[in-house]
Design a protein that fits this description.
Structural class: alpha/beta
Number of helices: 17
Mean pLDDT: 91
CATH class of the largest domain: Alpha Beta
CATH topology of the largest domain: Rossmann fold
Shape: globular
Number of domains: 2
Strand content: 5-15%
Order of helices and strands: EHEHHHEHEHHEHEHEHEHEHEHEHEHHH
Length: 380
C-alpha cells in the first residue's frame, strides 16, 4: 500500500435519526479517533422517520409487507440510490476495506447486494451485525434460504458479533476464524460527569422503541404491579412509537399518573434524564447489545433486564442489576422493589456499573478493536 495516503475505509450504515443502537454506534465510530489513522468514506443509508415509524408496527418481513405500498416503493428507491453511490465510490476511490452494518430480515437482504458488489471489486468486507432477531431470522427460514444467508455471510472476510451469545451463534454459521466479538461502546465520560441530583420521587427509566419487542406492553404491566404493591414510583418511557395508541392504553389501565410516554431524547437531555433516574429497565424480548443499557451503566444506574441476546453477557444478578425471563412481570417488578427498599444495594450497584462501563464499554476500546481488524485486512 502507498505511503502517501491514509488507508480508505468505506463505511455503510445509518446515523440519523439516532433512535437505535446501530445509528448510535455509527455516530460513535464517525466521531472517534479512527479518523486520525483512516480516511473514512461514509454512506449514510438512513431511511426517513416516516418509513421507520411504519416499521415499528410489525416485526420481521411483516414490517415491509404490511406497510403502505408507496412507503415500500420509496424505501426500495432509496436503497437503489445508496447502492449506486456505493458503486460510484468503488469505481472512483482507492477503497481498502468495506465495513457494512446490518440488521436482519429486509435489512440483511439489502446489504447482500452491497456485499456482492464489494466482492466483485475484490475488496475485503466486514459485516457488522446488529440484528436483535437475527437468530430468529436465520432459524425460522427454510433450508434453502438458510443456505443462502450462510453463503452471503461467508463472502465476508470478517463478521462482527456484539456479544458472546452472538459470537457463538455466528460461529456456528461462519466458523470460528471469521467471527470476531466487538462490543458496542460509547464515550463513557459524557455520562459519568453529570452532577445532577436524583428525582425526589423514584424514577424508573426506559429508553428505546416503544414496541412489543422492547417490552413496552410489559412495562405497563410492571408499573401496574408496583402500583398495586402500594409503592410510589414514576416510570418514564422515551423513544419512537405510536403515542396516541400508547397513551390510550395508559388511560384505559389507569396508569396515566405514574407512566410518562415521551418522544426520543438525545444528547444532553438524554444524559440529564439518565442522571436524574434511580434505575433503568428494559423488559425486551430480543436484543443484540443495546446502547441504552451501556448508557445506563455509565450513568451509574442499576439495570433491570431480561435474559435475551447480549443482555446475559452484560448483567449479573445483584452485581450490576437484575435479570429475569422475558414476560415475567412478577420477577421484574420484585427487582424494582428490591432496589427501592435497599439503598445500600442500589448505591453499590451504581458504583459497580460506572466502573464496568469505563473498563469494558468505553469508546477507546472500540477504536482499538476496529483498528486491529482494519489493519489486519489491509496487510493480508
Amino acid at each position: 500500500m502507498s505511503d502517501y495516503r491514509k488507508p480508505v475505509i468505506l463505511l455503510l450504515g445509518p446515523v440519523s435519526p439516532a433512535t437505535g443502537g446501530m445509528e448510535t454506534m455509527m455516530q460513535e465510530i464517525l466521531h472517534s479517533g479512527l479518523r486520525r489513522k483512516y480516511a473514512i468514506i461514509h454512506i449514510d443509508n438512513s431511511k426517513p422517520t416516516l418509513i421507520r415509524r411504519a416499521s415499528l408496527k410489525h416485526s420481521g418481513y411483516r414490517a415491509a409487507l404490511l406497510r403502505n405500498p408507496l412507503l415500500t416503493l420509496y424505501s426500495f428507491t432509496l436503497s437503489l440510490l445508496f447502492l449506486v453511490r456505493y458503486l460510484v465510490i468503488l469505481v472512483s476511490k482507492p477503497v481498502d476495506v468495506i465495513h457494512i452494518h446490518t440488521a436482519s430480515y429486509s435489512s440483511f437482504w439489502e446489504k447482500a447486494l452491497f456485499i456482492l458488489a464489494g466482492k466483485l471489486f475484490a475488496k475485503p468486507i466486514i459485516l457488522h451485525i446488529h440484528g436483535a432477531r437475527f437468530d430468529h431470522f436465520y432459524n425460522s427460514s427454510r433450508t434453502p434460504v438458510r443456505g443462502l444467508i450462510k453463503k452471503i455471510i461467508m463472502l465476508c472476510d470478517r463478521v462482527i458479533a456484539l456479544s458472546q451469545y452472538w459470537q457463538d451463534f455466528f460461529t456456528g454459521i461462519a466458523g470460528e476464524t471469521r467471527v470476531l466479538m466487538v462490543e458496542n461502546c460509547i464515550n463513557t465520560l459524557a455520562y459519568i460527569n453529570s452532577k445532577t441530583a436524583k428525582t425526589e420521587k423514584p424514577t424508573v427509566l426506559f429508553l428505546g422503541e416503544l414496541s412489543h419487542r422492547k417490552g413496552i406492553d410489559d412495562l405497563f404491566k410492571i408499573a401496574n404491579y408496583i402500583k398495586n404493591k402500594g409503592v410510589t414510583a414514576r416510570f418514564i418511557a422515551a423513544g419512537p412509537g405510536n403515542f396516541s395508541l400508547l397513551n390510550s392504553r395508559l388511560q384505559e389501565q389507569g396508569l396515566q399518573d405514574i407512566v410518562v410516554i415521551t418522544p426520543p431524547v438525545f444528547g444532553e437531555p438524554k444524559r440529564l434524564l439518565l442522571a436524574q433516574s434511580w434505575m433503568f429497565i428494559l423488559p425486551s424480548y430480543a436484543e443484540g447489545m443495546p446502547i441504552a443499557i451501556i448508557e445506563a451503566l455509565a450513568a451509574g444506574l442499576p439495570v433491570i433486564a431480561t435474559q435475551v441476546g447480549g443482555l446475559t453477557d452484560m448483567i449479573t444478578n445483584r452485581v450490576n442489576g437484575f435479570l429475569a425471563p422475558p414476560g415475567n412481570i412478577e420477577l421484574l417488578g420484585n427487582s424494582i422493589l428490591a432496589l427501592l427498599q435497599n439503598d445500600h444495594l442500589r448505591h453499590t450497584i451504581a458504583a459497580n456499573n460506572t466502573t464496568l462501563a469505563v473498563r469494558r464499554f468505553d469508546i477507546h476500546l472500540l477504536v482499538d478493536r476496529l483498528d486491529s481488524i482494519y489493519s489486519g485486512l489491509i496487510r493480508a
